[in-house]
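ESCALATION

Customer reports they have been waiting on this structure for their group meeting. Please prioritize. Original submission:
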Amino acid sequence: MISLLLVVILLAVLILCAYADRIYSEMGKFLAREYQANVDAWVDGIEPRFGLSRDSIALSASILRLTAVAALALVFSRVGGERHNPASFSILLIEVALMVVVCDRLVPQILFARTRGGWCVRIRWVFQAIFYVISPLTLLTGLLLSIASLAEHSDEQTEEASNEEAVDALLEAGEEEGILEQSDRALVRSVVEF
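Update from on-call: job pushed to the front of the queue and completed.
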């Protein structure tokens, strides 16, 4: 009985977080009116009440989706008893795959396509509760992502510096060959910088 209740709760969390993740993946795109209504309902009715940044909420939704799938797989493996033989393990894989297809993709897509988002405003306290529960993991993940992005910025700066050096070399070669004049060089540089 407890494992059935746990499965239902995890499935509900998975559906809600997959819906929220879908909202954030669709933001900034040109959407049909009914899709845009979902995004607008989320941005106007839910997001301001969280007191969290948009990036933090999007990261929380993504983390919760993955955590719910992993927890459901664990619960399914425990509920099914011994799964040591290949047939039982295959059944477990099929159950988890069906669960992911239905609850992580199909139901959130139906909610996104067939509703206007008003339902999520009415249950915003559920979203708020599950996002606050996962906030320590979100903060840790955000910190780790920030640390990882520090290395990327230094690579980008090095790449930009080498690109500038290459453009300078081409411009100088063009001037030496008589292809470019000084005024043309300034024009080309401004175009490249743009």
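Sent to customer with the following note: The helical segments are 2-26, 33-50, 54-79, 86-114, 118-122, 124-133, 135-176, 182-193.
Escalation resolved.
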